[in-house]
């Protein structure tokens, strides 16, 4: 193997492409050398990012220590002041796990749940919560049992985080170091144990890895399982549909869709038949839920005094219009967008227009943002906005829950925090759209690559381009990956 070919196959070093990464590497001795990457060292990129992820996850658990010791049990204000709130210990008692009730089948007494008759989570997440309760001892004081339940869930969620970072590191074969952004993301460390979102996030990352490896059925099965844990992964079928349409890869899309439907039904159908009321609670609750924290709808409602009873309809309309705009962008772009780019835009659209933008929803976007736009500056700007919002929501809740003392962040300050994290997300969307319109600025394609996470779409020729008189664009020749830019043919076909 020639040295030139070895250079082609070596992992891309972010310190050689990104000035922020290069400057940050000075903290550990400067940019990593080529021999460190191509030698036989145990310290492979995947192992390094995995260890960094585990370390950051552990730091996130330490950040929850004030609540673990007493904050979750001493009253609401303490857990907000220390910014260490988690749903996990509260729902252990509030959803009947401590009372050994069976999710979806047993009705939860009102004095326990505060009015929620059944568990309001999708089935696979409910199974995750139930397994954690099986691993939690039933004897002893309730406070101690809640602590153990949170610790058990944290351990299981850490495993999900490990799967997540390994999948991201392996999705772009030549860019494993990009996963370091996922591992180091401060918002991920802070929000990982608030709720159970990491289960769906890790399954979605595994699905994208399988798609990148040209295994559409396995990708569909994992996407169906992810949708059985959280609704949002279902939306990724939209970008796949548009991209397969442009490339004419209908069989791959159909295989993925079939796998997703089969996996989702395998998980949901038993409960749909045996416990329809409990199974449907997630969907009715999502539909009936009022405007809540983190959304721009809340700002409008607070500023105008209007409860916006039809926010659900408005949000759905905005999502449909936004998806149509993204589809138009994908079909008219000078070069077919990468799957990760469209996936990020669709999920960001769904979150930004939603009537609730909970702090842990940032977990949905972190891996997609890294795959779509692996630039340290843009990622860190966005993460700074999310960390500010993370602090803002808890200080606002401390303000509203501290009685006449009002210690914390007032309403106007919280509205500013909402706008900050919405604008941070929109900023990242803007640079991704710019990369789609100006593909020569896409950092992933600087080496001549097409779509490393595109699977069967990678280097596939276009068969449909909206508004194109030529109607067809060439594939990127594999032999010229490192030297040729994507250029449409000048002659008609």
TrEMBL record:
It comes from the Bacteria. Residues 468-493 are annotated as: Disordered. GO terms for cellular component: plasma membrane. The chain crosses the membrane at residues 42-62, 148-169, 181-211, 217-245, 252-275, 311-330, 379-401, 413-433. It is a multi-pass membrane protein. Its main location: membrane. This is Uncharacterized membrane protein.
């Amino acid at each position: 193997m020639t040295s030139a070919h070895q250079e082609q196959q070596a992992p891309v070093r972010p310190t050689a492409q990104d000035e922020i990464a290069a400057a940050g590497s000075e903290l550990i001795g400067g940019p990593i050398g080529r021999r460190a990457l191509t030698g036989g060292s145990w310290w492979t990129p995947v192992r390094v990012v995995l260890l960094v992820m585990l370390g950051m996850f552990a730091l996130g658990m330490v950040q929850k220590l004030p609540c673990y010791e007493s904050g979750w049990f001493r009253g609401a204000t303490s857990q907000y002041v220390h910014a260490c709130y988690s749903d996990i210990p509260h729902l252990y008692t509030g959803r009947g796990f401590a009372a050994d009730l069976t999710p979806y089948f047993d009705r939860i007494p009102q004095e326990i749940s505060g009015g929620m008759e059944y568990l309001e989570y999708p089935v696979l997440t409910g199974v995750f919560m139930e397994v954690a309760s099986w691993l939690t001892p039933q004897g002893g004081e309730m406070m101690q049992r809640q602590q153990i339940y949170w610790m058990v869930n944290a351990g299981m969620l850490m495993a999900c985080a490990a799967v997540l970072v390994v999948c991201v590191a392996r999705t772009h074969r030549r860019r494993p170091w990009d996963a370091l952004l996922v591992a180091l993301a401060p918002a991920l460390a802070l929000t990982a144990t608030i709720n159970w979102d990491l289960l769906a996030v890790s399954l979605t990352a595994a699905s994208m890895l399988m798609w990148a490896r040209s295994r559409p059925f396995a990708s569909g099965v994992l996407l169906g399982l992810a949708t059985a844990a959280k609704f949002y992964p279902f939306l990724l079928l939209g970008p796949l549909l548009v991209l397969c349409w442009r490339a004419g890869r209908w069989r791959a899309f159909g295989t993925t869709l079939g796998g997703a439907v089969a996996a989702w039904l395998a998980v949901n159908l038993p409960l749909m038949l045996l416990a329809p009321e409990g199974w449907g609670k997630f969907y009715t609750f999502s539909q009936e839920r009022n405007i809540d924290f983190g959304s721009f709808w809340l700002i409008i409602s607070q500023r105008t005094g209007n409860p916006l009873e039809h926010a659900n309809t408005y949000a759905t309309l905005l999502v449909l219009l936004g998806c149509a705009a993204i589809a138009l962008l994908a079909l008219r772009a000078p070069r077919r967008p990468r799957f990760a780019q469209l996936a990020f835009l669709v999920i960001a659209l769904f979150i930004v227009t939603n009537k609730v933008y909970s702090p842990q929803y940032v977990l949905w976007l972190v891996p997609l943002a890294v795959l779509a736009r692996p630039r340290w500056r843009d990622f860190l700007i966005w993460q700074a906005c999310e960390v500010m919002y993370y602090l803002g929501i808890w200080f606002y809740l401390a303000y509203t829950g501290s009685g006449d003392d009002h210690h914390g962040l007032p309403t106007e300050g919280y509205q500013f925090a909402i706008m900050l994290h919405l604008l941070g997300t929109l900023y990242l969307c803007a640079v991704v759209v710019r990369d789609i319109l100006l593909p020569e600025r896409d950092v992933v394609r600087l080496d001549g690559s097409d779509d490393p996470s595109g699977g069967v779409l990678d280097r596939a020729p276009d068969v449909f381009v909206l508004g194109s008189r030529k109607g067809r664009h060439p594939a990127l020749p594999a032999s010229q990956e490192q030297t040729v830019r994507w250029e449409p043919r000048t002659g008609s076909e």
